Amino acid sequence: MLAFYLLPDDAPRPGPPRLEELPKAGELSAEDFRELQAQRIIEGRLSYEQDFRWSSGVAQMKLQLLLHRHPQLRPDDASTPEQRLFVLLLNASAADSGLLAVAE
Q: Superkingdom of this entry's organism (predicted)?
């Protein structure tokens, strides 16, 4: 799984022991990740096996892109890759936070 944690834009990346203290925004499977890359919602340069970070601005842009392409998305559903990404981006937006993706 690829776990997404809320991390303020100005905060440094925490080491492994402190990672557990961050609020978790959600997670994506390898299949979800590939599907979202195929739709060009997740950048093709990113790897499922490597950690990466999105600023709050990038997370907000992805949320808008997702809503533009899939206006039917709802926060109470997690049945598709788009829905799962939508929920974790909503969590980041609500917290006005960036996201740290960690391969687990």
A: Bacteria
